[in-house]
Design brief:
Layout: H1 3-7, H2 12-37, H3 43-51, H4 65-77, H5 81-107, H6 110-118, H7 124-132, H8 136-156, H9 160-176, H10 181-192, H11 198-201, H12 204-226, H13 228-231, H14 246-277, H15 296-318, H16 329-332, H17 335-343, H18 349-375, H19 377-380, H20 390-399, E1 406-409, H21 412-421, E2 426-428, E3 446-451, H22 459-469, E4 481-487, E5 490-502
Parallel strand pairs: 1-2, 1-3
Antiparallel strand pairs: 3-5, 4-5
Helix pairs in contact: 2-5, 2-18, 3-21, 4-5, 5-6, 5-8, 6-18, 7-18, 8-9, 9-12, 10-15, 14-15, 14-17, 14-18, 15-17, 20-21
Length: about 500
């Protein structure tokens, strides 16, 4: 083999195939770890089990698309944890693949595109948190990645088919999570303000695409208009400060934004900076920067800047003083691509390989860390919610003779996990209220369930019972039955439930 042949870069198709193989194997392992290591659900997945008991056009404060997809997964794979894990990890896998495809269009370099996609591992909210939590946030991330790819394809060739795909992405993104909307708007603003992309955005075809997207979203928008109280039910999480002066509220909002962005970008920034400026491959000339999509690099950077600006305007306009890092996912997922664009003139072959190895290594470390968190939670610090012993607790409840009926739980975390292990029951909790009976189900008996050592059901739980069965039937002095079971893989930690059974529903309640 000649020296020139040995130094030749790997073919683009070979790099793409290896990336696809790695990322597919990675998320298959993550799904198997989830299914084999734990048998309970985290907060978001448990909530999804509760609110997929019925098909609706709206569900509380979040758009309905993830609910619909989860219902479809239950129909396809059967009700249970596998359907939940499959949907979750397919969506997460799609994020990495779509970011790779977008980066390849912009950079015209498969290796650098793979580094960009693997760079998502270095974003804590994507690389770590999304592995064991997130539903609507994850879907909005997937749709944002799909929208970026669709937009770049439109900029390449503005065919009607590509505009139609973009319209579908706009609509699905809005139905995934409302925090997606600033990113979609940023794509349009960035495209309209750059000479290379303006003609694709300021066109009749784009106008038609936006009309199609609006038509697709219109039924849900009508639901939002007629259910404003439900849609705004969780605005307290933004910690909106109406009492402080305008300047003070803006200052707090700006600080929250800076802290949120810093927590999101810190590790990625450090890795790219280290690989680009440390003396790696000294004496080796930087690899030539390939042209890529005309205007593509400027488009990505401007999209990121505009999106952050729009989020900041929203924070200041609403006087929000809380900006959680996960809310920024549909915007900041482009960070690795933006960083690559900024540092690529400094990258030689050694630095490219170093970046790829470090990013892939971070992913492997995260896989091992999650295995430790599931299988040896004492080393992690505390058991995750998915380690809670709901399989054993459901068996305890079944031993009481309760297998069908209605469970009224203190929280959707408890309700969803009990439903997972008692699939023939109907569950309800105070936030979302009552649901239609499970197929072939019945209202009575009614089981009230809450956590901790309280001797009486919480007030919200008693009110939920009265909505279902009326004021009679529940003995206020009834002594609850208590179950305490050890967390899975953490026998020293125990989770306790208190239950009260009401054999009959006096009013014959119909949820």
């Amino acid at each position: 083999m000649t020296t020139a042949a040995a130094a030749a870069p790997a073919p683009s198709s070979g790099i793409a195939a290896r990336f696809l193989l790695f990322i597919t194997a990675y998320f298959v392992l993550q799904a198997l770890l989830r299914l084999l290591a734990v048998d309970s659900l985290g907060l978001d997945d448990a909530e999804m089990v509760v609110i997929t008991q019925d098909l609706a056009i709206g569900y509380g404060s979040q758009p309905p698309l993830y609910n619909w997809l989860q219902l479809g997964a239950f129909r396809l794979f059967g009700f249970g944890a596998p359907a939940i894990a499959i949907l979750h990890f397919v969506l997460l896998w799609a994020v990495y693949v779509l970011v790779f495809l977008s980066a390849r269009i912009v950079l015209a370099d498969a290796l650098r595109a793979a580094v960009v996609a693997l760079g998502l591992f270095a974003i804590p909210q994507i690389g770590w948190e999304a592995l064991h939590s997130h539903t609507h946030t994850l879907l909005s991330l997937t749709l944002a990645a799909a929208t970026l790819y669709a937009m770049l394809r439109v900029i390449e060739i503005g065919s009607w088919g590509r505009y139609l795909v973009l319209a579908l992405c706009f609509a699905l993104g809005a139905l995934a999570k409302y925090s997606y909307i600033p990113f979609a708007a940023a794509l349009l603003v960035a495209g309209a303000t750059l000479a290379e992309t303006r003609r694709r955005v300021l066109s009749l075809r784009m106008a038609a695409a936006l009309v199609v997207a609006l038509v697709l979203v219109a039924p849900h928008l009508y639901w939002v208009w007629t259910h404003l109280a439900e849609t705004l039910s969780r605005t307290s999480k933004f910690k909106i400060d109406d009492d402080a002066g305008l300047v003070l509220a803006w200052g707090r909002g700006l600080l929250a934004m800076v802290v949120g962005v810093a927590g999101y970008v810190g590790l990625s920034l450090a890795v790219f900076a280290a690989a680009s400026f440390l003396p790696v491959g000294r004496g080796t000339a930087p690899t030539a920067v390939k042209p890529g999509l005309p205007g593509g690099r400027a488009f990505v950077l401007r999209t990121l800047a505009v999106a952050l600006g729009l989020v900041l305007v929203a924070v200041l306009a609403t006087r929000a003083t809380e900006v959680k890092e996960r809310w920024l996912q549909p915007v900041l997922f482009v960070l690795p691509l933006a960083l690559m664009i900024m540092v690529e003139p400094r990258l030689n072959a050694a630095r490219e390989r170093l970046l790829a190895l470090v990013m892939a290594g971070i992913g492997v470390v995260l896989l091992a860390a999650l295995a430790v968190a599931y299988l040896a939670p004492g080393l992690y610090g505390a058991p995750l919610r998915a380690n809670a012993p709901f399989a054993a607790l459901a068996a305890d409840i079944r031993a009481l003779g309760f297998a069908r009926g209605t469970i009224l739980a203190e929280s959707h975390y408890i309700a969803g996990n009990l439903k997972l292990h008692l699939p023939d029951v109907t569950v309800a909790e105070p936030e979302y209220g009552l649901w239609p009976l499970a197929e072939g189900g019945r209202t009575a008996p009614v089981l009230l369930v809450w956590s901790g050592k309280r001797d009486r059901p919480p007030q919200a739980l008693r009110e939920l019972y009265e909505r279902l069965c009326g004021a009679r039937g529940l003995d206020p002095e009834a002594t609850p039955t208590r179950f305490r079971e050890p967390y899975r893989h953490a026998p020293g930690e125990r989770y306790e439930l208190a239950v009260v059974t009401v054999p009959d529903c006096p009013s014959g309640g119909t949820p």
